[in-house]
Give the backbone structure.
Amino acid sequence: MSAALPETAPAAPGDETPERRFPTAPLFLSGPAALLFAALVLTPLFLTALLSFNQFDYATGRTGGFTLEHYLSVVTDEYYLEIFLRTFRISALATAICVVIGVPEAYILSRMTNPWRSIFLLVILAPLLVSVVVRAFGWSMLLGPEGPVNGALIALGIGRMKLLYTEGTVVVALVHVMLPFMVIPVWTSLQKLDPAVEQAALSFGASRATAIVRVVAPQILPGILSGSLIVFGLSASAFAIPGLLGGRRLKMVATVVYDQYLSDLNWPMGAAVAVILLAANLIIMLTYHRMVEGHYRRRLG
Amino acid sequence: MSFLELKNITKRYGPLTAVGDVSLSVEKGEFVSLLGPSGCGKTTTLQMIAGFVEPSAGTIRLDGRDITRAKANSRGLGIVFQSYALFPHMTVFDNVSFGLEMQRVARGERKPRVEEALSLVHLSPYAKRYPRELSGGQRQRVALARALVIRPPVLLLDEPLSNLDAKLREAMQFELREIQRKVGTTTVMVTHDQAEAFSISDRVVVMEAGRITQIDQPYRIYEHPETEFISRFVGKTNLLPGKVVTATGAGATVSLAGIAVPVETADLSVGETVTLCIRPEKLHLTAPSSGLLTGRVADRFFLGSQWLYHIDGPVGTLMVVTPNDGSTPAEQGAPVGLEWSPSVVRVHRGAMAEAPDVALEVTG
Ligand SMILES: Nc1ncnc2c1ncn2[C@@H]1O[C@H](COP(=O)(O)OP(=O)(O)OP(=O)(O)O)[C@@H](O)[C@H]1O
Ligand SMILES: [Mg+2]
């Protein structure tokens, strides 16, 4: 610390006065990130939104002009409605299961002492090092008609079951992929807790369960909230898992977008579906965020 | 048999012995303070009584029951944590009410009791606030109210008043003492502040590096510190190295840099190296060359009700505290004489140790 001081000290008194420097500094500091964000995220989004209003000519495959027909057909078509509903149902279910599994997991992790804590944290994070596609293939091999799960079911006399290409399988695989995104924010907010607060609850005669429900859970709610938002958002726009484990018939929104772009070559239609997914996702997440966080803002700051 | 009894309690963290072989008996209704420098194991001792730290060895008995391995939530103690440990997501009212809820006190009875506890700590107007909207001292008082409201048989207080201003602290000390007298709560309090420990405790436990060095009534700790460390840690003291020159059955004479000083300690032997401890307020200023030794005022500090002098003399610099009786104080640089009665001199055997690296606190 002291060794670094002589190097940084001369740089500190800038030639600008504090009053003049104050408004420009945040601009300079956030500028590069803002530019990068605009170039890499907003531009493609804007182009996609523009594309979704273009007309599409099936005969020639040309796009151009302005129309609302793609939006109208998505909103009115039962087929799309069902896919949207299925997407949000599956995502909500996956999020709920991630909360149920991930929160206790994070709590147990936070109670471990060090060699074990590091090992298990690594175990939880390790799946992130493997491509989603590889993990999805893993599930399809495991659950396929000739896979070990069906082999076990046959050996037990229950008989072969159709496991692949069902909603349940997609949910299970999504939970598997998304769990780290729930565990990490919850674990982080558990790290910030003062262990004495839980001890205080115990000292008043609260059972461990009461202490967790009344004292620990409300404090880690922001962590659960951000974990839920990440898991829901990623699930609703997931592509590889439903694509590989949902098959041709069990479609989710992201796979429909893919089909529109690459099978039907109807890019404006795909863009419209994507924009609607984005909007719906935003609305759901913001509502949820307001509902939960508004409740806790004053208490936890 | 005593109400709360620690027997040979030890806590080791790896190679570090945070608390070593601590034995302490607390009677029912007694107020005991743990006093010691930072890091000496006071909190660890309290946490072992509370059940949050498991002792490496030894037993803890409460009311005849062995609670060494009992769960923390079965001990029924009222605790004020050093870090307060308030529930951040609950209002002040709910924080205080939590313990009553756990005791299944009816809702109708909870409200008046919470309000009473809050008014005791002067926080009635803050009932609806959240802890993060309070100042440090207010939070500390919430922690105190939360522990008092359940009327526990034993109160464990970890520096419960450290963040309060002098006036409020005095008021709270008085309240603590009142409650403890009225309800007969057995109290163990950790404190850094020796004035606080002395003014409200029945007995004071002095700890040093994980061990208890003396358990005694406050005035005895002050007047008869058993070790040189205690005499330095508790209050201010003058430490003077010397050698015994004559010894009789009734007392001895110690030579301090050639000046013979009588002491009343009996079993000393001639030629022994000793350290004399004399409290600054036991030294009296007299006219030059009329006392036991003569020196010169090096510095003087006005403390309000007292004057603190640094007197340079043949045995080094001595601290002298005199009451401010309104008369003109001795001038800086003026020669003065010093005298004291042999009965106020405490003798510790052996040479003077290095000055302890703890911050000594000034007591008024
Ligand atoms: N969990 C722990 N792991 C390792 N060492 C610990 C732990 N808790 C406490 N210690 C050590 O034990 C010693 C005693 O700590 P303790 O908290 O009891 O001190 P204290 O007397 O309460 O000090 P203070 O007056 O500063 O609060 C310290 O040296 C501390 O570093
Ligand atoms: Mg402490």
